[in-house]
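Quick one: structure for this chain?
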Amino acid sequence: MEFPSKSKPVIKIENVVASATLNQEVDLNAVASAFRNVEYRPEQFPGLVFRLKRPKTATLIFNSGKMVCTGAKSEKEARRAIMKVVKSLKDAGIIIVGKPAIKIQNIVASAILGGRIDLERAAYELKRTMYEPEQFPGLIYRMENPKVVILLFASGKLVCTGGKSEDEVYDAIQKLHQTLEEKGLIEYE
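Got it. Here's what it folds into:
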């Protein structure tokens, strides 16, 4: 386990959500018949859930050919999971023409900054924040560039959501960390 230092927060990607379009319709009944390990209950939900063990992900597949993959720990893993699902479908005799158009929709990351944060002062010093400790213990910070939302806790831990790339997430967290240090809002033990 890596520990944070004054200059470098420890960042971990928790979940990558990617969408894909096959640009064709998919017969979900045929997919459900070909695979025992899928979940498909059209009377409850219109999508089929296709789970992979490696990488450990769940991909929703819709009749329209649209797919949503969740659970990946990197952009690369999300793309690999979608390609593996498409290959599995083809191997089972489901006709898929062309390659899926894949787009990263959201990346959620956690980080440890390594110091205590004065959330009261941070709520005043940072723009675009919301802090109501009676309702939620964290400060909600809506960063404009990159466009992400960060939940910041007094312990120095945070959750960043809304990133469209891993670089964007790392950039946002580094930028916030630097701002907290410059404004004297983080205190190291």
